[in-house]
Design brief:
The structure is a single chain. Helices cover about 50% and strands about 0% of the residues. Strands 1-2 form a two-stranded antiparallel ribbon. The chain is mostly helical. The radius of gyration is 21 Å and the shape is globular. It has a domain at about 90-135 and about 140-195. The longest helix has 21 residues, at about 35-55.
Length: about 375
């Protein structure tokens, strides 16, 4: 695999059926504070023990392997994987997954989708991204059911420029969703050396902005110009699609990138921390780190600073701990005060019972996922000390 400029150009066959992998953390020197590590490990152990008593099988898998450090071939881990195969939400998702790689959507959402351009614009694609996210959490692989077909369906929506079209009916490309798509195909075992994955990666790198971040073209730059600022969005988009709006991204260096568009892209990039373009990718990480707990410039996407502190599940609904997970895998480490304070924030967010909760919409099962996700982050950090 080689790079020309900012473009990945070599291809190789797709790897199918990859088993529950995470990116490999960068190898770090031992720079840690031993007292801090002992205190952090004590927090992890206490919460681990409490969650382990009640965890559903797929949560327990991630807990055993990525918090406790057990080998995937360990007898206990294999037993948990067997239980996960029969986990009712996983069974249901695989049963409903159709041969064409899509899931049925509600009549109301189907009607709305049919009134627009049609898939990938609308709820079909959004549902696929969500359900594939869950299936990976539930320990499914690309060999299960029609998951492989779902991944191929996503690739079928890739246009000549390299990005995956959809899902918003305004037909404006979304770096956020392209990052989620890249993360989805990578976690199910498709390598970045696959030509289609590399084209998606290259498009995202081409769209990286002056401050290291990403935004939504037109909506988060041109729309702020005086002649368009007060236009209704539909009227503005009609003008865009009619070719009446000239576009030069470099003309908007005075407009900051979008924090959440950038986090979405980074979640896809984090699967390849050894990427030769890691320095450029880390510019996006620095943009996010410097903006943590701050208000997003753009009203069109999670503008309130409160979103950083909401521990949501699925994590891609916008949350600081989702961003932190990707940042650690991109090589940001202990000793960086920006990272250290985020770890402190997560520890302080733990409740007295040892769990972390989705405070926006408490949910017994989702809170297990929130807790195991936080514990994985804390374990990654602890291993750096």
């Amino acid at each position: 695999m080689r790079f020309v400029g900012n473009c990945l150009v070599e291809t190789c066959p797709v790897t199918a059926g990859a088993r529950y992998t995470r990116p490999t953390l960068p190898t770090l020197a031992n720079t840690g504070d031993c007292v801090l590590k002992r205190e952090l490990d004590a927090v992890i152990e206490q919460s681990y023990n409490r969650l382990n008593k009640v965890a559903v099988p797929p949560v327990k898998f991630w807990l055993l392997v990525y918090v406790n450090g057990m080998d995937q071939e360990d007898h206990e881990v294999q037993r948990v994987l067997e239980l996960a195969e029969n986990y009712p939400p996983r069974v249901k998702l695989l049963r409903l997954l159709r041969e064409d790689g899509t899931w049925p959507i509600s009549k109301q959402r189907r009607t709305a989708e049919d009134l627009g351009p049609g898939p990938p614009y609308g709820w079909t694609y959004i549902t696929m991204i969500r359900n594939l996210y869950w299936l990976h959490d539930y320990c499914a692989t690309s060999d299960d059911g029609y998951i492989g077909n779902a991944l191929e369906k996503i690739f079928s929506w890739q246009n000549d420029e390299g990005y995956i079209e959809g899902p918003m009916p305004d037909m404006i490309p979304r770096p956020y969703y392209c990052g989620l798509a890249l993360s989805t195909i990578r976690k199910f075992g498709i390598p970045l050396s696959d030509r289609r994955a590399s084209r998606l990666f290259n498009w995202l790198m081409e769209k990286q902005r002056h401050d290291g971040g990403w935004n939504i073209p037109y909506i988060q730059d041109v729309k702020y110009l005086p002649q368009y600022k007060h236009m209704k969005m539909n009227a503005f988009l009609d003008l865009v699609h009619g070719g009446g709006v000239p576009y030069d991204p470099k003309a908007f260096d005075n407009v900051p990138s979008c924090y959440w568009s950038t986090v979405g892209v980074l979640t896809g990039m984090a699967w390849d921390p050894d990427n030769p373009l890691i320095k450029e990718i880390r510019r996006g990480g620095n943009f996010v780190l410097n903006g943590f707990f701050k208000k997003n410039y753009h009203p069109s996407f999670y503008q309130s600073e409160k979103h950083w502190e909401l521990l949501r599940y699925p994590t891609y609904f916008g949350s600081g701990y989702w961003a932190l997970d990707s940042l650690l895998y991109l090589g940001f480490r202990s000793g960086d005060p920006r990272i250290d304070r985020l770890i402190e924030w997560l520890v302080q967010a733990r409740m007295k019972d040892g769990f972390w909760y989705n405070k926006e919409r408490p949910h017994e099962l989702h809170d297990q996922w929130v807790t195991v996700a936080v514990l994985m982050i804390l374990r990654y950090y602890s291993n750096m000390l």
